[in-house]
Amino acid sequence: TDYTLSKLARIAEASGSSLERTVKADVYIGDPSEYAGMDRVWKKWFPNNPPARCVIPYMGLGTRGSRIEIALTLLANDSKLEIETVETSGAPEPWSHEPQAVKVGNFLFLSQQMACDSRGVLAEGMLRHPEFPHYGLPGQNQMRHMMKNIAAICEAGGTSLENIVRRACFHDAGDHFADSIEEWASYFPDVKPASTTMMIGGPLVVPGANALLDLIAYVPD
Fold this sequence. Notes:
Elements: H1 2-14, E1 22-29, H2 35-45, E2 52-57, E3 68-74, E4 83-86, E5 101-104, E6 107-110, H3 138-156, E7 164-171, H4 177-185, E8 194-199, E9 211-218
Parallel strand pairs: 1-2, 7-8
Antiparallel strand pairs: 1-3, 4-5, 5-6, 6-9, 7-9
Helix pairs in contact: 3-4
């Protein structure tokens, strides 16, 4: 993480920007166990006002021995747009070093969304009860929980669920895809966001979470 961010800092400078102008980061790690180490280094590089961030494990990094890949979205230094951190008590505080969302111009970049609390622990009622293994729809329950939080963050950022324009959803194994996508679609009866769904083939960084959302919303003037 330290090496990759130092390299990105040089690229950003050569491009007329800097890491301080980062608005969104997509971080791919080899295994969920590496999340904590990555996050410690992240705090060093982004001590204040970190960018919105989504961390996805098991993404099949291309270089042998590589444990992390980072993609950044930045503003140029000469841009007149301002970077605004969005916070609301209507959704859990992030459990690692990222804000709930970052607003830039007419776009709201949300950080990773999973059905967890501010400790990074799966919210209550998100799994089937072990004594009743055939009852309940964990995909639906977790998506509904996330959408409640997302709606609060969108409102704090000056927009709404209906203005989400881009969705990437990462599933652990896909067992709960059907009820998850059905719940998601119920919030968009008319125009639906552009959407990509991927199965990562292993557990997410929050134990028990079956889906992770990476979202961008439009903020009307």
